[in-house]
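assembly run, all chains below
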Amino acid sequence: MLEVMQQLRGFLTLLLFQFAGVLLKAGTHSQLPGPVIGMALLALWLYFRRRHSHEDVERVANGLLRVLGLLFVPAGVGIMVNLDLLRSSWLPLTVGLAGSTLIALSATAWVMSSLQGRRSKQGAL
Amino acid sequence: MTTAFNLLQQLCSGTPVFPLALTIGTYLLGAAIQRRTRWPLANPVLISILLIAVTLRALHIPYATYFGGAQLLHFLLGPATVALAIPLVSAMEHIRRALWPMLLALLAGSVTSMVSGYALVRLCGGSQVLALSMLPKSLTTPIALDIAQNIGAIPSLVAVLAILAGILVAVSINDVVHWIQVKDPSAIGLAAGTAGSGVGASHVLDQHPLSAAFAAVAIGLNGLITACLAPFFAAWLKHW
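ok done. output:
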């Protein structure tokens, strides 16, 4: 029973931060999605209170993230409405998806590794 | 026969029971198939989407009816996005040690992903809506869906593209980092999380602890960076 209460408290924390994000978005006319602002707020909150235990929210969060895949199935099924679009535009979609994914992958890895490499060399001198 | 069929249809659209059971059931089936085959394309999300679409077609249930019932799961994407703060904060020590290289690398990944995705679709004759759907596709799906609505892309297409991008990263990352001669595990993790979000990162999680930490950071921070940049890029690219 205690554990259920703990999980509810954790879930409530996530909901409150999401709500804070939505409020902040409305108040500032931000282009950022409310839950993304909520994520940033929760990260700051956890970081500045890192000496405290956050076990309740951590457990619920990790549970949710483990089934994240399941949560985007309902939106993904919507693709059945756009089947004609897929059929008529498979070429640009395939080229765009494969090309941009491989380019972004290489760019990130290359920039990170060359900047890190330079820094560790400077550190060695 | 037709009355039995009609009854089934009515039962399916009256309550969220059928959509929820169908979604969770096909997802578990997909997860079992993935465990058996260990084949990256056997992604539980992809299998589940496919099976549900086939079932809905066969029973003549419109997507809107299904979504009405499955909304309970869809709603949880909001709290799940907020939950991404947890892996972000637990990797904070790594973030502080490599802050600038990491931010610049994330920026490079975010911008190249958006610009090349948009440009390649347009060059191959795709419409503007399709090209816009490329902007959020490397993000974790809950954030990608939010941005899709913001910039006028097609959310369901973005959801599927995001999963496919993750699968592509998972199957190609070892070869790609070999070609560009990157051996730094933090760079590999960061790249996997930036280009392929959760599905892509899952492949590097057990390779090196640094890869796992930076992949987690990349999922959250790239979501934040791209969420900030995408509306401006969308407005700017529309003039092309």
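Chain B touches chain A through 113 residues (CB under 8 Å).

Residues 83-237 of chain B form one domain.

not gonna interpret more than that til we talk
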